[in-house]
Amino acid sequence: MDNTILNHFYENNVKMRRDETKRVTKEVLPLVDELLRYVNQRDSRFLIPTVKVGSYHTHLKVERPDEFDFSVIVDVGKLYWSNKFCPRNYDFDKSKKNIESTAIALPNPPAGQCFIEYGSLVARWDSERLNDGGASMTFNNDIVPIKVKRRFKALIAEAVNQPKMRNRVTADRMSDSPAITLSITFPNISYPISIDLCPMIEASVEFKNEFNWPMPIQDREWPSDQKISCIKDIGIHVVAKAPFYWTLSFAACEKELLESIDENGTCRRKCLRILKTLKEKTWCNHNARKGLTSYHLKNVLFWECEYHPLDTEWQQELLATRVESMTYRLLGYLQRGNLPLYFHTGVNLLSSKDKDVLQQEMNNIVTFLNHPRLYLRG
To answer: Which fold has domain 17-259?
Structure first.
């Protein structure tokens, strides 16, 4: 593996064309705005201004601009947090469609998940009848993730069924992902565009000691104290992934961490984009839900930066060194079956993945490391 071959691979397989990117965003952004304006008119709890997250908005997208991620803020007002755990006595009924009270309480939330009690605006929801019937997003004293997700999904389905939208926008079926995925075709773009709209509560949860971030390192070089302070000010938000437990979302923290990450001419983003392209073209067989994802690779980058914090270790002439090191780092996580979430080391990002799929991907990575030139010449 050397810089010349990697740079050639980057130019031919990774970089997006600026004119194409500009043309796609000119189509996508107004359409997303129109969809969310419809949703907001039907339910004012879902706000129109989005938080732009994901690969495209953090300059990590590869090859072509065909995926866009937006967090849609659910306006719940000020949230009140308590360290005291209260049992939650509810669950799905037999039909799995409705939620009912139960004698047995839900288990305590796993690492990286939590409950959310009423925010300050929920009383207004009730007084304005925003929370009635199928529009209800609460049960007992909780804002319930599955109810928020179902309400948002129903409104998006209405929006894409409007005459102006229905012939070019389709909404995927609800899945375990916290986002609603839309597939969109434009007459002047030769490939479909995927848009993820993810309901998010700006919870601003504080980092707890058990998250182990930032790591207790003396004379820390990366991230800087100023960057750590900015990330703590942003706080942790939550998204509706599991039915009853809100999942901590570090998307805004990750975006801030990536901001200006290469301001001194380093190659951190470039390394990650190369790994993402190798994942898509070489290591993985389109089993994104079962195996490695771009999010895994983003966390590998963060850990690589943690253990190689100096800009001098990320100079352009060290591109091959860093790509190889990151690949071996990823292989080590796969072999151990544990890739810790950078911002919360108690969360194993591989825990829900298919072990057989991960094993095959691990085998593919080993083959690549043994013969990198063979795969980088394409």
So the answer is: Beta Polymerase; domain 2 (3.30.460)
The mean predicted confidence, pLDDT, of the chain is 88
DSSP letters spanning 147-198: HHHHHHHHHHHHHHTSTTTTTTEEEPPP-SSSSEEEEE--TT-SS-EEEEEE
**The one-letter amino acid at 59:** H
Q: Comparing 17-259 with 263-378, is the CATH topology the same?
A: no
Q: Which of 249, 259, 258, 248 is nearest to 297 (CA)?
A: 258
* H helix count then E strand count, the chain: 12, 14
Domain boundaries, the chain: 17-259, 263-378
Instruction: Give the pLDDT confidence score for residue 54 in this predicted structure.
Output: 66
Burial class (CB in 10 A: 0-12, 13-18, 19+), 256: middle
CA–centroid distance for 159 within its chain: 24
**Domain range 263-378, its CATH number among 1.10.3720.10, 3.40.1360.10, 1.10.1410.40, 3.40.1350.10:** 1.10.1410.40
Rounded to an integer, the average pLDDT of 22-29 is: 80
pLDDT tens-digit map of 41-67 = 999 999 998 877 766 556 666 667 778
Q: Strand pairing of 67-74 and 193-205? A: parallel
Identify whether the C-beta of residue 230 lies closer than 8 Å to the C-beta of residue 190.
Answer: no
What mean pLDDT comes out for the span 159-177? 79
**Is the pLDDT higher at 341 or at 163?**
341
* Tens of pLDDT, residues 267-309: 999 999 999 999 988 999 766 678 999 999 999 999 999 999 9
E-strand ranges in the chain read 46-53, 67-74, 90-92, 99-101, 113-114, 138-139, 142-143, 169-171, 180-184, 193-205, 236-239, 246-249, 340-341, 344-348
